[in-house]
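Two records follow; treat each independently.
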Amino acid sequence: MYTVNEEGLLNVYASEPEVYYAEYPSPNQQRRYALQGAIATLFVAALFLTAFAAS
């Protein structure tokens, strides 16, 4: 996105987005994050065990 200043010069600097604060996750989101972490941990452990068994 290009902007032009009052002198007609082109300004190609990035426009800064509005700043907003993140909201603390709800208990439902916290449980979902914990479940995703547990599933990811099991998946990585299975990959390591498969690689160890194959070698």
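The next record belongs to a different protein.
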Amino acid sequence: MNDPSTTELVTKSRLLRDFRALGIEAGMTLLIHSSLGSLGWVCGGPQAVIEALQETVGNRGTLVMPTHATHLTDPAGWQNPPVPESWWETIRDEMPVFDPALTTTRGMGVIPEAFRKGRGVRRSSHPQLSFAAWGEHRDAIVAAHSLSNGFGEDTPLGRLYDIGAYVLLLGVGHDSNTSLHLAEYRWTGARDRRTKVGCPMRVDGQRRWIDYEDLDHDAEDFATIGEVFEQIHEIKKGTVGEAEARLFSQPEIVDFAQRWMDTHR
């Protein structure tokens, strides 16, 4: 948590006011990417943020957050940090399989890690690229998450697109905007960008190391895509706590990003 001598006190009641001022309304479906540290000194930490979001969208609304477990991958590709090559086979043999309740997130921040364990939250089944959801559309969003097209059509991202969801960037930029990966699957070059992926899975009751194919995801141009999108499209910007926040249509940015990739990639 931030040093209280260098930041502001941010309470749940303030978060509620800031979310509403930004344009979040009851009944909305939100895909949220967040940084708790950007908000200031939050009284109640991630719990306060989650409760404020739930109260803002209400019982007819839906909240979704990425709960990726990128440590359930082939250790040969690990870079941050790498592990000795002499460990690789042991890790492949011993790494526990994905468990929606037990498997922690990695690199998602403390808000999604707290959210995934919350009352009424359900997590999708993808061993590496899961999302967690709460609210009206929870079950439809997390059902039957495609293994070999982890950010594609038969995934929470595809279902959020069909619902007409909104993206909330809370103290983070478009480089964290996972919806742009959905545009990658629709990009004309996607068919030439498949790669082998491995992870431990349970098959017929037995733990096995499984190799499968998925898109070789590339987020290098996401910040640029987001910057250009904001120059052309009207989005809602504001301050939540001390964080810069952005709210915009998920289908709108996915359609824009697909066209941008078709032209510039």
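Discussion point: Residues 250-264 form the longest helix (15 residues). How would you locate this feature using only the token line?
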